[in-house]
TrEMBL record:
Pfam families: LysM, Peptidase_M23. Keywords: Hydrolase, Membrane, Transmembrane, Transmembrane helix. CDD domains: LysM (cd00118), M23_peptidase (cd12797). Residues 78-122 form the LysM domain. InterPro entries: Cell_wall_metabolism_enzyme (IPR050570), Dup_hybrid_motif (IPR011055), LysM (IPR018392), LysM_dom_sf (IPR036779), M23ase_b-sheet_dom (IPR016047). The lineage of its organism: Bacteria, Pseudomonadati, Pseudomonadota, Betaproteobacteria, Burkholderiales. One of its GO terms (cellular component) is cell division site. The keyword Transmembrane helix applies. The keyword Ion transport does not apply. One of its GO terms (molecular function) is metalloendopeptidase activity. This is Murein DD-endopeptidase MepM/ murein hydrolase activator NlpD. Belongs to the E.coli NlpD/Haemophilus LppB family.
Length: 279
């Protein structure tokens, strides 16, 4: 059974204090040179012993802090360590999973029964820690206007045949969550379709900046993202075919009617325009 930080401190300090009491006062005379304890030549008085114990407590706290920062092992591929404020729903959304799938993978009976520090499986080990399609909040500060970062697109080892997700005017993303995404403009209610066959792993509006959002997982570690929809036509866990309607174009969490489309491989954005067929 693991002990908490408070228990570790008490154990360390208790042992050190016992040793200090057992040692003869004369053997501690070297502490007269200590910056913490200025002892007289004849030995240590009760006051100086008390001061020494305070110094000892400070040392124990420092050791405890050092142990606390190195005690946790890094999580492995396909795993996630629960932090304060996490819910299973949030973890599922961030990793392109459904709550039910996380409960099955981790043998959880109650979605509310997760603890800080608990390590959960969130995807296959071959896919990496956020491979299932982790998406940051569009307004999370990952990208700062005026200092926009443009990370290199992932280079997939496999290919995937796509269909266009919607009719309309398409432009590369310059202000969206990823510079590798695509904005498709058309009128509200325009059908939004799955670019390839797959399984819906997210259907909702819980990720800030994406509005009504659909995420579909495809074969070969690809996922597709459809954001800002007016309405959603599929639910989590549902299988979809290529060209099947999954949503209707809208303007949720954005100031114009548009579909934001993004393609990801192993959790990283790829240049969607390179994979969509030429019109």
């Amino acid at each position: 059974m693991e002990t908490g930080n408070g228990e570790r401190f008490l154990v360390i300090f208790w042992f050190a204090n016992v040793i200090l009491r057992l040692l003869p006062v004369s053997s501690l005379s070297f502490f007269r040179f200590s910056p913490c304890v200025a002892a007289p030549r004849g030995g240590l008085s009760a006051l100086h012993l008390r001061s020494l114990r305070l110094c000892l407590a400070a040392v124990c706290l420092a050791l405890l802090a050092a142990c606390g920062t190195t005690g946790q092992k890094a999580v492995g591929p396909g795993q996630y360590r629960v932090v304060a404020g996490d819910t299973l729903t949030q973890i599922a959304r961030k990793h392109g999973q459904s709550v039910d799938s996380l409960m099955r993978m981790n043998n959880l009976r109650n979605p509310n029964n997760i603890k800080v520090g608990q390590v959960l499986r969130v995807g296959s080990a071959s896919s990496g820690p956020a491979a299932s399609g982790s998406l940051p909040d569009a307004g999370s500060g990952t990208v700062v206007r005026g200092q926009r970062q443009a990370p290199a697109a992932a280079v997939p080892r496999t290919t995937i045949g796509l269909a266009w997700p919607a009719e309309g005017s398409a432009v590369r993303s310059s202000t969206g969550p990823s510079p590798h995404g695509v904005y498709i403009s058309n009128k509200a209610g325009t059908p939004v379709k799955a670019v390839a066959a797959g399984t819906v792993v997210y259907s909702g509006n819980g990720l800030r900046g994406y509005g009504n959002l659909i995420i579909v997982r495809h074969a070969s570690d690809y996922i597709s993202v459809y954001a800002h929809n007016r309405s959603l036509a599929v639910s989590e866990g549902q299988s979809v075919k290529q060209g099947q309607k999954v949503a209707e174009m809208g303007s949720t969490d954005i100031n114009r009617t548009v579909l934001y489309f993004e393609l990801r491989y192993n959790g990283k954005a790829v240049d969607a325009m390179r994979y969509l067929p030429k019109r």
